[in-house]
Design brief:
The chain is α/β, with parallel strands linked by helices. The chain has helices at residues 11-19, 47-74, 92-102, 125-133, 158-169, 196-223, 237-248, 272-278; strands spanning 2-6, 28-35, 83-89, 107-111, 137-141, 150-155, 178-185, 227-234, 252-256, 282-286. Helix 3 packs parallel to helix 4 (125-133) and helix 5 runs parallel beside helix 6.
Length: 287
Amino acid sequence: MNTLLAVDGSDHSYEAVRALKFLRRADQLTLLHVVDAPRPAYPMMVPEVAQELYAQLERSMKEDGEELLTRMQSLLPLHSGPVAKLLQVGSPAEQIVAAAQSCRADLIVMGARGLGPVKERLLGSVSHRVLSMAPCAKLILHGSLRQLKHVLLPLQGPSDAEAALRFLAQKPFQDPVNVSLLAVLPPTRPPWPVDDSAAEKLEAQALRHAKDFVEDVAATLRTQGYTTRSASVLGTPLTMILHEAEKLGVDLIMVGSRARQGVTRFVLGSVSHAVLHRAPCQVLVFE
């Protein structure tokens, strides 16, 4: 598994480095820092002077960036794998995505910078853009990952399950984890008139199909060495995911990045951003 660790010197970046101890040894670990030097904002300044000021600032930021990369490398877990340091200049989000593509990353790990003390758990704009643009799994840390023993995996249909199984087949975690699978079906009535008894029977049938679906996925995971449990519930996806995470005390939630419609009519992908903001634990978004 190829891993890209993007660092910017923030506290959350250090949390991202510490989180690597819970991930398996990388076949290649790329340690990336992006320099984004601001242009002088003085319209009356002579262009040559402005360019020289910018060049000096960029040189200074590059030197600081090299020192940051060296410091971060010294903090990596011993089992991290072969490391390549990379210093890029430009838009952080664009450079992170480009680096992930060039090194064929299976996973991006990075910290999420807060937007102030009141909104410290909100993801910054760079994190959101990487989340939307990067074609691989993303683990964006907004706090400490203290242990990784229990993972909640909400599923939204067959294509989502296939993506989760592909990622988990790479054995991305250092130690064995317990995976709790969850199917959430919104409590909707059919478009034709039915009495309450018939509606309840339809819901019960849908839940049985959902239960069979997640149990099939759980069976596949067990053949890969994971321990599992599965559940199917009626309710609002975001509410039920957060409730299940709190109830089980999970260490990590894995969610798909895009909404999909499967034969089971799960509706989940559109809430992945909301889960990132409100989850009581860290969140990994897979493709």
